Amino acid sequence: MAQFAVRATLALAKRTTGAAFSAPAATRSYATEASPEAYGYYSDPLEHATGREKKMLIARLAGDDRYEPKIYYSAAASTKEKPNLGPSHFSDIIVGCMSEPDSGHTNFMTIRKGTPKRC
């Protein structure tokens, strides 16, 4: 029934204007880069960070690099009485050890505070 009403409306429009009734051609716009003025700038990560993440970001901005990953080389003459120490703010630390200078892989281990391990 609705299809008949549409056909009747189109036929009436064709009779009154005397020309064929057609819809305008659709055009597609091209994608462009969004401007910050139109959509706003990226928010500051410091505003959304909480807890440890915020503490780390504030320390990094202050120039404190204690949370950055570092490479520590083991001492040549380390013993059980004088071990290599790995600094950490937590009770666990993940350490990567290359057992031999020519090895092509790294052995990773988790070390807990107070329990020494040997590579």
Automatic annotation (TrEMBL):
Signal peptide: none annotated. Gene3D superfamilies: Cytochrome c oxidase, subunit Vb. GO terms for biological process: mitochondrial electron transport, cytochrome c to oxygen. GO terms for cellular component: mitochondrial envelope; mitochondrion; respiratory chain complex IV. It comes from the Eukaryota. Pfam families: COX5B. Transmembrane segments: none annotated. This is Uncharacterized protein. The gene is WBGene00272484.
